[in-house]
Design a protein that fits this description.
Order of helices and strands: HHHHHHHHHHHHHHHHHHHEEHEHHEE
Number of helices: 22
Oligomer: single chain
Helix content: 55-70%
Shape: globular
Radius of gyration: 25 Å
Number of strands: 5
Largest sheet: 5 strands, mixed
Strand content: 5-15%
Length: 465
């Protein structure tokens, strides 16, 4: 587990391998080492970091616009976005990723002001860590570079003494040498996830791009069309109104204009990245992929609310109360229709009032029926909760990892486990997709018998050769 946590494939056993960059698994590993293996620790981690991100959003807004009100409203909007509320307690890497993404932006804004090697080094460290959490965060390098020009970094006092481009380049190289080295060295262990993992750049596709962009645009700004209320409708309207402020800002306040443009660039870079990434017909799976945009979404909306407060000249307390009413009431209504507040205090993994294919309880029952010393091939989403499985000495092979290293790792594990009984849990994963992972199972194993609960089947299998 430690090998997986630090991205060391040589000591990372197949059934412990993370599918993506190992930052989040490493943090969970630390918690497991300190407090024992329990799923709730992963959930506590993501919920805790998501809560801390609210404070980071405040400091980003405050640092960027030099305004506590803008920071306050940005943090408020972030705290009320349904998408983040739902993802925060799941143990997902997305909340951890958002925390380090926000931390990177905060240190970046401070570094632009302080212009010290210390703060630029902090930017390099936190940006590198954000990529350790999710490799798609590497796209942030584009706005970070553009930001140097947007914020007129090269027009600072430090550069005015240089009369030639050559001297400017030399000075800049010296300034950024240590941060760049820190970033490159810390990125070396995870480059195989970024370029060669199952979530690599090869998944980027222009197919159905218009449909995907339309679907995503409706999700954020016109949710009633597709009945998906993951973003605040009133906040989305305010976000769109930021484009009305741009011409005025361009004429009257060029610095604020540049700041808004910088955040909008971050929003649209992640927006288009997700549009290129997912392919229909994956239902609403793309919504969780959109999670990175909640940070720029909240900052821009917070800026607009603060500007409206300034223009309206309404008492600040009264204005804040109005905003809370406008934002919170629809959120409460949405959650009341979509979720039962009684279920907040139940273990959601064992609930039965959801579609059968998403239930954990039948999977746990099937796994418990397999011998404790067995090797089980199982889909990523079906990997069970440690604390719900009896005699948890079983070993798992995540179906997604089967093609890794040209199938050599999984074959080695099979040979090592030949004396142990082997099982395969068939759920929606291989029913809906006959990719290389599923083909390997169906072509290389004999299916002896099975136990079924609903649509889930636990097959006893034997390796053919």
């Amino acid at each position: 587990m430690e090998g997986c946590g630090i991205g060391n494939l040589d000591s990372c056993i197949l059934y412990h391998q993370p599918l993506m960059t190992p930052g989040h698994p490493y943090l969970i590993t630390l918690l497991f080492k300190l407090f024992g293996e329990h799923d709730l620790l992963a959930m506590y981690l993501s919920a805790f970091l998501s809560s801390l991100t609210i404070f980071l959003i405040f400091f980003i807004g405050y640092t960027l616009f030099s305004s506590e009100r803008k920071g306050l409203y940005a943090a408020l909007i972030f705290a009320l976005i349904s998408l983040d509320i739902l993802i925060a307690p799941t143990g997902s890497a997305r909340s951890t990723s958002a925390f380090f993404l926000a931390l990177t932006l905060l240190f970046y804004l401070i570094a632009l002001k302080k212009d010290s090697i210390k703060f630029w080094s902090l930017v390099a460290i936190t940006f590198s860590l954000s990529i350790y959490m999710r490799q798609d965060n590497s796209i942030l390098i584009l706005p970070l570079i553009l930001g140097l020009f947007i914020f007129d970094y090269f027009k600072k006092e430090n550069f005015k003494n240089f009369t030639s481009i050559k001297k400017t380049i030399i000075y800049t190289s010296k300034k950024f040498f240590i941060p760049v080295v820190i970033f490159i060295v810390t990125q070396i262990p995870v480059q195989h996830w970024i370029w060669f993992s199952h979530t690599n750049m090869s998944l980027i596709s222009f197919e159905y791009l218009k449909i995907k962009l339309s679907l995503m645009w409706c999700t954020v700004f016109f949710p009633w069309i597709i009945k998906s209320y993951m973003f605040l409708q009133s906040a989305s309207i305010l976000f769109l109104s930021s484009f009305l402020f741009l011409p005025h800002l361009f004429k009257s306040d060029r610095k604020s204009f540049n700041k808004v443009i910088f955040i909008l660039i971050i929003f649209f870079i992640f927006f288009f990245l997700v549009a290129f990434y997912f392919l229909p017909p994956n239902g609403f799976d793309y919504i969780r992929q959109m999670h990175p945009i909640v940070i720029p979404y909240a900052i821009i909306t917070g800026f607009v609310i603060s500007e409206l407060e300034r223009i309206s000249k309404i008492n600040q307390k009264i204005f804040l109360s109005l905003i809370l009413i406008i934002m919170v009431i629809p959120l409460v209504l949405i959650f009341s229709f979509k979720f039962s507040y009684v279920n907040i205090f139940r273990d959601g993994r064992l609930t039965t009032d959801i579609p059968f294919e998403f239930m954990t309880a039948p999977l746990i029952k099937l796994i418990n029926s397999a011998p404790p010393n067995s090797l089980i091939f199982i889909s990523q989403s079906a990997v069970p909760s440690f604390d719900l499985v009896e005699n948890n000495e079983r070993r798992w092979v995540d179906i997604e990892m089967i093609p890794a290293d040209n199938y050599n790792i999984v074959k080695h594990e099979i040979m090592k486990s030949k004396s142990s009984p082997m099982y395969f849990i068939e759920d929606y994963r291989c029913k809906n997709s006959m990719d290389d992972s599923c083909k390997f199972i169906y072509e290389n194993f004999n299916f002896i018998n099975y136990t079924a609960i609903g649509d889930f089947k636990l097959y006893k299998i034997e390796y053919k050769s």
